[in-house]
Amino acid sequence: MSKIILAHGEGGKLTREFIEEIIFPLFRNEPLKTLTDSAVLGKIKDGKIAFTTDAYLVSPIFFEGGDIGSLSISGTINDLCMCGASPLAISFALIVEEGFEIENLKKILKSAAVTAKKAGAIIATGDTKVLPKGKGDGVFIATSGVGVITKGRNISDDFIEEGDKIIVSGDIGRHGATIAAFRHNLKGKKLSSDCAPLNAIVDALFESGIKPKALHDPTRGGVATLLNETAKRTKLGIEIYEEKIPISKEVSAVCEVLGLDPLYLPCEGRFVGFFKPKDAEKAMLILKNFKSCKNCSIIGQTTKIRNKMFPVLIKTKMGSVRPVDELSGIQLPRIC
Amino acid sequence: MSKIILAHGEGGKLTREFIEEIIFPLFRNEPLKTLTDSAVLGKIKDGKIAFTTDAYLVSPIFFEGGDIGSLSISGTINDLCMCGASPLAISFALIVEEGFEIENLKKILKSAAVTAKKAGAIIATGDTKVLPKGKGDGVFIATSGVGVITKGRNISDDFIEEGDKIIVSGDIGRHGATIAAFRHNLKGKKLSSDCAPLNAIVDALFESGIKPKALHDPTRGGVATLLNETAKRTKLGIEIYEEKIPISKEVSAVCEVLGLDPLYLPCEGRFVGFFKPKDAEKAMLILKNFKSCKNCSIIGQTTKIRNKMFPVLIKTKMGSVRPVDELSGIQLPRIC
Questions:
Q1: Does the complex come out with an ipTM higher than 0.85?
Q2: How many CB atoms lie within 10 A of CB B304?
Q3: Among A14, A32, A38, A150, which would you mutate to test the B interface (most chain B Cβ atoms within 10 Å of its Cβ)?
Q4: Which residues in chain A have Cβ-Cβ distances shorter than 8 Å to B41?
Q5: Pick from A335, A261, A249: which is nearest to A295 by CA?
Q6: Which CATH number fits domain B157-323: 2.60.120.620, 3.40.50.300, 1.10.3290.10, 3.90.650.10?
Q7: Which class would CATH give A6-149?
Q8: pLDDT per residue as tens digits for the range A88-110
Q9: From B97, B129, B280, B318, which residue has the greatest number of CB atoms within 10 Å?
Q10: Strand B237-241 relative to strand B312-315: parallel, antiparallel, unpaired?
Q11: Model-level pTM?
């Protein structure tokens, strides 16, 4: 059998065989092995529990730098570590369209398993459902994650004060530009998604004694929307410098051709962090130990609020100041 | 605006407004209110963590006795309490097709919120993604749940022994028969899905000092598949009596007309429990306090294994014995 059929999602014999023959060899771990209604994760003695979810509809399913499998696991791990949590377990719900190639599904599952393993997380529980041909579009994945926030790792926008430095962990817009380029059939040799788990990088910051005040990953809506959300929550202004925003030549080229603004393009392996001024340079040194962070940059700081409607301002390379609004309308459907 | 548009899923202004104006008033709770990357649930000092997920594609979205909203919350709560866990928090990932009526979406969200509230669980984190028209089919939902298994509530198939009694908590096949009847335009006045959370019933058993050895909910694949899976895991045989299996007249009628076997029809508000013989009658008395359990029944027991290929046997009303296999092939696509 080379294609998914409806019976793979019916909960009977074929579902069991699919799980035993395809899922198990890839995701093998103790809680999953029991194959019962819930995974039992054991006790968590110290620390608060963090809990997150996301649905992934990305089109194309396979793209330069990743696929829907690695994207879904990275996204969930990143949501956990953006609140200081270490990933403990991930759930994986697959919605597959009838007729989807089992070989392609295996590639997706393998990529999910490898990404989770590298990040030290397990895929502890899952579900497989099949949509009749034409009622879906290949594969959708919904993942959720449970993590533990140990003592000293509680971070929150509540800690942000006027004058805090804002760091992006690497060049921005790669994921969005990669998907946009694919859709418009633009070829760029070096362009690939930044899709990757961030937990090792966040761990390195904490282990060096640097506590970020807050961390967020600029996914849908990009850096611009993230900064607007943070400004609204903290009731502070934010000031960034265009010349400090790291953007690769490849991403710039795609944005120029397609008329996209990199500040609104999603990243899937970057964070925007808010740091005490005295921690910012030290944080940069630690980030630079990671290949994916070699272009990290202090892009600006929080300020007193000047304009409530537009709390985020950018100083352009030309020296002018303009407001940066949150994303309104749509830029790229099914980007993640 | 009366319909979902792509921008509702883009993570920008319209997504924020959708969350603030529609999701918040319904799901309001502390962890959700922060609207950050993960919900922070607090510490869990005693007990193991249980974790589960399911995707819901049910068609029709609204059916007698429930809708995709109440179904997704009930299903997740039930998966948790089938392993003895009390539901703590639920995640809710929405995949909506462009053009879907916002009023209908509100109904679904309200029904999810009410079901969670009744069961004492919170919807702590979520996600909304929009599929372009024609790439989905109305609404899909993926929920996951985190629960706590407190001391003394660890239940597992490992505890099942030869001679244990098997109880179903109510009449079977209602959810499957309701969906099947709708699709074939059969009208039955009293037929409605059994879709409901089971945690109050499970709590009542534990509070009366009765510890089920194992509990499972007969969803996809129905009671027949559940019994086969349990027999395989425990390496025991299972013997059930046709005359003891509670099936309503309405479900029987639908099955007769459509040629369906109620043993394979999914329930969404029933459990199959395995009990020590001395506990079984007492468990029945407790169950009978719940309206949904008034037809609960001891349907059989575990036995030595006689036939490895077919470990589950049924004694028919005619006195003959026949094997009950797990579901093979498909019976009803998109039943949940």
A1: yes
A2: 10
A3: A38
A4: 48-51
A5: A249
A6: 3.90.650.10
A7: alpha beta
A8: 999 999 999 999 999 999 999 99
A9: B129
A10: parallel
A11: 0.95
